[in-house]
Amino acid sequence: MARNHLLREYAPISDGGWRLLDEEARQRLTVALGARKLVDFKGPFGWEYSATNLGRTDDVAGALAEGVSALRRRILPLVEVRADFTVSRRELLDHDRGAADVDLSDLNEAALRIASAENVAVFHGWQDAGIKGVTEATPLDPVPRVEDFNDYPKRIAKAVAVLLKEGISGPFGLALGPGHYTAVIETAERGGYLLAEHLRRILDGPIVWAPGVRGAIVMSLRGGDFLFESGQDLSLGYDHHDADNVHLYIEESFSFRVATPEAAIHLTSSS
């Protein structure tokens, strides 16, 4: 009998094989889940957890009896996200024999896809899922970004100054898409001083690689401004298998809401 909906016990995968897959997924996801490094994470509360309490109500029209009124609680439903992948049965058997170079490329791609989807939902929103992202919620005008990354410190300093003027304290974090992250990390300013180190001193916080981010986002890390609720945290599950491959997936459920819209500012990707 299945222990839970992931149905892992039905997969033709040894205990050692599952340890390999879980560890590979953990390593890949830890690197790519940029949003989680900058927002408040609460949970996981389990697969059965279905909605986030918003603490607000709406009036219910039409009383059931005279002198009786009613309010409906507002909630934010969690969204379930899944990325499918396959693993060769031969590769898993070779791992059980001691092979160290197991091909898990499809798992790695699935981990990047689902991490990117989570990052996009948090930073840019997901209208169909009822999620308003950080850059959608902020009322602050975006800071234009120029192509010369040597000018990045001026724009980061301006973004931090705008947040401070709004009464938003630091430290601050910076989320960058892969291309921008690489450019920042590889750029040296005049005199050989690394651009990334200069930015960290301005922010007093981390620079985060976040696949899915468009442009860059500076946001406060003081806490309480950006709220991520996890139902089921990212987990591997079993779908089916055939003679050659095991069909698996990475799955999670979550909600996200912005409590303080003015606690972040977007650096657009064009000048």
Core attributes:
30% helix, alpha+beta, 7 helices
Word description of this protein:
- Strand 9 and strand 10 form a beta hairpin.
- The chain has one domain: 2-Layer Sandwich (Major capsid protein gp5 fold).
- With 271 residues, it is an alpha+beta fold.
- Helix 1 packs parallel to helix 3 and helix 5 runs parallel beside helix 7.
- It contains 7 helices and 11 strands.
- Belongs to the encapsulin family. Family 1 subfamily.
- Keywords: Encapsulin nanocompartment.
Summarize the structure.
With about 270 residues, this protein is α+β, with helices and mostly antiparallel strands. The chain contains 7 helices and 11 strands.
Question: Secondary-structure blueprint of this entry?
Answer:
Elements: H1 15-32, E1 40-42, E2 51-59, E3 71-77, E4 79-88, H2 89-96, H3 105-124, H4 134-137, H5 152-165, E5 172-176, H6 178-186, H7 195-203, E6 207-209, E7 216-220, E8 226-230, E9 235-241, E10 245-258, E11 264-267
Parallel strand pairs: 1-8, 5-6
Antiparallel strand pairs: 2-3, 4-10, 5-7, 7-11, 8-10, 9-10
Helix pairs in contact: 1-3, 5-7
Pfam family, one: Linocin_M18
Main location: other
InterPro entries: ENCAP, Encapsulin_nc
- The number of distinct structural domains comes to 1
Q: Largest sheet, described in full?
A: 5 strands, mixed
Structural category is alpha+beta
Question: From the alpha-carbon coordinates, what is the Rg to the nearest angstrom?
Answer: 22 Å
Subcellular location: Encapsulin nanocompartment
Organism: Arthrobacter crystallopoietes BAB-32
Protein name: Type 1 encapsulin shell protein
GO cellular component, one term: encapsulin nanocompartment
